Amino acid sequence: MTNELEGIKQIDYKELNDLINSNSSEYVIDVREYEEYVEGHIPDIPLIPMSEIIDLIDQFEKDQPYIFVCRSGRRSQEVAKFFKMNGIENVANYEGGMLEWQDEIETGETNIIESISNLYKK
């Protein structure tokens, strides 16, 4: 069930899983640190660490929808708020984070984004 926290839409496991499996237009981005991502992440979800997003914010397309994932939902919430402060309105937070993820995970360096243009090559 969708709710809101600090002006940010919160989505739960079922909603995120449904979005991922439906090939929806949302860009789901893991914002944890590199080491956390390599240990285990949602398959096909790219990594852009929170620590790098600040420097890249102007490269994101403002009219695209974004959902952010982290370990517990707190860092991803902060990233979503940062996007909103920078004029990117269509954002959401996966409120449970990887702690709540109940499906398959992958390990390794499968989808680490080094250039924002690579994000949009779906």
Structure description:
34% of the residues lie in helices and 16% in strands. It has 122 residues and is an alpha/beta fold. The protein has a single domain, classed as Rhodanese-like domain (Oxidized Rhodanese, domain 1). The chain has a five-stranded mixed β-sheet. The N and C termini lie far apart (27 Å). 31% of the residues are buried. InterPro entries: GlpE_sulfurtransferase (IPR050229), Rhodanese-like_dom (IPR001763), Rhodanese-like_dom_sf (IPR036873).
Q: Which SSEs are present, and which pair or pack?
A:
Layout: E1 3-5, E2 8-11, H1 13-21, E3 27-30, H2 34-39, H3 50-56, E4 66-69, H4 74-85, E5 91-94, H5 97-100, H6 116-119
Parallel strand pairs: 2-5, 3-4, 4-5
Antiparallel strand pairs: 1-2
